[in-house]
Each structure stands twice: as C-alpha cells, then as structure tokens.
Amino acid sequence: TAGAHLDRGILFASRGEYDLAIQEFTASIKLNPNYAPVYHNSGNAYLNKGDYDRAIADYNQAIRLDPNYAAPYHNRGLAYLHKEDNDRAIADYNQVIKLDPNNAGAYNNRGNAYSYKGDYDRAIADYTQAIKLDPNYALAYINRGDAYDKKLDSDRAIADLNQAIKINPNSAFAYYSRGLVYISNGYDDQAIADYTQAITLDPNYDNAYYSRGFVYFLYKKDNDRAIADFNQAIKLVPNHANAYNGRGVAYRDKGDYNRARADWEKALQIDPNHQRARDNLEALRKMGY
C-alpha cells in the first residue's frame, strides 16, 4: 500500500539510505499521487543527498497539494539557502512564520538568510526571536554570536557563544565558532584551545584542523605544527583547497619551495579561482623559483 511504502521510506531515510528511501516514496506516489507528506519526505531525501533542485520540485508539489503545510516551506527554504538563493529562502520562512508563528527554527533559518545577505541587524532580530521562543536553542546563540562578530561586537559575540557552550558543552561547532571570534580579535591562545576542544569532540572536524593550523602558522610561527594540522585537514577532505594553500605557505617559510609550489598548484587545480594560491605562485615565480 501507499502507506507501507511511505513507512519503509521513512525508515530507510532515518538510516541515511536515501536512494532506497526515494524508491519507496516514488512507489507510494504512484499508488497515491495526491498525498503531500510523501512528496515532502521525498524532498527531504533529495535534500540530504544534496540534490537541491529535485528536493525543491518535490516540496513544490507538496505545497501545491496542501498550501497550509508549513514543513515543505521550511525545508524548501533550506534548499534555497544551499543554492544561495537567500531571497527565496526568506520568502519561504516568512510563510512558515505566518503558518506557525512559534516556529523557532524558521526564525533561525531566516536569520541565516539575512546574515548571508549582510543584513546583520535583521539577522540578529530573528535569532533573538528564535531564542525567545526556545531559550535552549544553542544554534541560534551560535548564529547570533557570528552576526555580532560580523558587526565587530566581539563582547556580545563571545557572550552568545559562551551561552551556546553552556547549553550544549558537547557542541564542536560552538567551540569552533568561538575560536573564530577569538582569532578575529587576536586571542591566539584562546583560539587554539577552542579549536583543540572542537577536534576533541569531533576528530573529523577538518576546518578545526585547518583553522588551528592557520593560527600556528600566522601567530605562533610554528610551521611544523601548522603543516601537521593542514595534513590532517587534507586527509579528512582531500579537496580542501585552503588547506593546500596554507600548507604551501608554511612550506615556503621553511624554504621548501618545491613543496610550496606543488601545494599551490593543487589548490588551483581544486579551485581555479583561488586567488591567494595564484598570488603565492606568482610571488614565488618573481623570487626565481
């Protein structure tokens, strides 16, 4: 039956088996093409696979069948955020809030869209409303802290990130985010401590290794530790262009120009628009290497 296929699809999706889930949702739709929740769940599976266009198509269908169904607006907004279509994301979260005024997640995500547009005041207002609705919403504190940091209000940024850590002391992202604020204000030791804690909580956190490596290189002048961290970031994410560029700079400072060149060329192979790697290669060429 359509319901049985839907239930099996939800089970597969809960296990991260999204292709099998989509097969079940498709079978359910064939048997009952007018049931909005099936399209919504199918959209979620595509969203988790990173196929944002197909996800949006399914959310569109769910909304067509049930215009008062808040969930597909919410998740279509996520898909639009991934596609960097912030205005459409905002429109979807406006609709979610209209249908469900107490949806803290919608305020948080709309805040993200405003933040990506550089409208930090509106972002902060939305994060604040999300926190008002859910005082234990650690991610909203993290996001508001980031917005305050963008506004160069480091005291409020750190206060929000401290609160996020208090709410969820096992959040690697919270420590990593506080590390970013610390380093943007020149607190290198505190930043290293936070990146290290993020790595302790999540040993596969590639950007925590990259950021710690950056601090070791730039602030501590410790090229060997920097290279070790960049190595680990690359091991975890082989296409980490920034880590290749950073490692290249550390090799250059050690006088190992061949390895530096190879890393910058690799960064450009991964990302042909990586301007720092391009500038570093050009500077190396002018040095005669």
What are its keywords?
mainly alpha, 17 helices
Protein model, in words:
The protein is an all-alpha fold and 289 residues long. It is 79% helix and 0% strand. The protein has 17 helices and no strands. Helix 4 packs antiparallel against helix 5 and helix 7 (104-116) runs parallel beside helix 9 (138-150). The N and C termini lie far apart (69 Å). The model has no long low-confidence stretch (mean pLDDT 97).
Count of alpha and pi helical runs: 17
Number of strands: 0
Distance between the termini: 69 Å
Structural class: mainly alpha
Q: List the secondary-structure elements in sequence, H or E.
A: HHHHHHHHHHHHHHHHH
Dominant shape: globular
Task: Outline the fold blueprint.
Layout lengths: L1 H13 L3 H14 L4 H14 L2 H14 L4 H13 L3 H14 L4 H13 L3 H14 L4 H13 L3 H14 L4 H13 L3 H14 L4 H13 L4 H14 L4 H13 L3 H14 L4 H12 L3
Helix pairs in contact: 1-2, 1-3, 2-3, 3-4, 3-5, 4-5, 5-6, 5-7, 6-7, 7-8, 7-9, 8-9, 9-10, 9-11, 10-11, 11-12, 12-13, 13-14, 13-15, 14-15, 15-16, 16-17
Short characterization:
With 289 residues, this protein is mainly α. Helix content is 79%, strand content 0%. The model has no long low-confidence stretch (mean pLDDT 97).
